[in-house]
Amino acid sequence: MGNRGRRDIGWAPTLGKMLEMGVKAFACCSRCGRQQPIDIAALIEKVGPDFCLHNRRNKRAS
Questions:
Q1: Is the pTM of this model over 0.70?
Q2: Which residues have CB under 8 Å from 18's CB, separation 6+?
Q3: How is the chain split into domains, by residue range?
Q4: Cα–Cα distance between 8 and 13 in angstroms, integer?
Q5: pLDDT digits (tens, 9 = 90+) for 12-44
């Protein structure tokens, strides 16, 4: 079972740094396993370049 506590991953993957380094990110549904690429530039416009995706989960649709 997973732990949502903070772990040392060796680097701070902020959205700005991910875009700068060309890192690709994907969202994955825990129910069906479907994966979808994340548009990092569009996400930066919404939440800012200092936002970190590490250990984030999106809201479940009802």
A1: no
A2: 25, 40, 53
A3: 15-47
A4: 11
A5: 678 998 899 888 888 888 889 899 999 999 999
**Per-residue three-class SS string for 5-60:** CCCCCCCCCEHHHHHHHCCCCEEECCCCCCEEECCHHHHHHHHCCCCECCCCCCCC
32, HSE (Cβ side, Cα atoms, 13 Å): 5
Distance (Å, whole) CA 38 – CA 17: 15
User: How far apart, in whole angstroms, are the C-alpha atoms of residue 53 and residue 19?
Assistant: 12
Structure tokens that stand for 18 in this block: 């991910």
14: β partners: 52
Backbone dihedral region for residue 36 (phi beyond 0: left; psi -120 to 50: alpha; all else: beta): beta
DSSP 61: P
